[in-house]
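#onboarding

Welcome to the new folks! Below is a worked example of what a typical request in this channel looks like: someone posts a single protein sequence, and someone else replies with the predicted structure as tokens. Don't worry about understanding the tokens yet, we'll cover that in week two.

Example request:
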Amino acid sequence: MRRGWWCWPCARLAAAENIVAGYRRRIATSDEADDARAEAREAGRLELEMRLAGIEAERTAVRDMLSSGAINDHTARALFTEITLTEALLQGRQERK
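Example response:
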């Protein structure tokens, strides 16, 4: 059997290096995807927190308008119902995550 430029150990080493490089690329891609998912979760959490704070501000404003006589009981109830439904929808989104 004639031996030329081709070397079995060299070919095995090259193949192993290619496999390792592939795994490194997959790990890097996975890490980047994990980071992106974590950032998206945090952004979603902050958005929800801000929306819920806004709902509390709306409730306070409706109470203030009702107590000052700027709106009547009927209007206040309608606004509180809308605020409560919006809050329930947001909290439902939070619970599904």
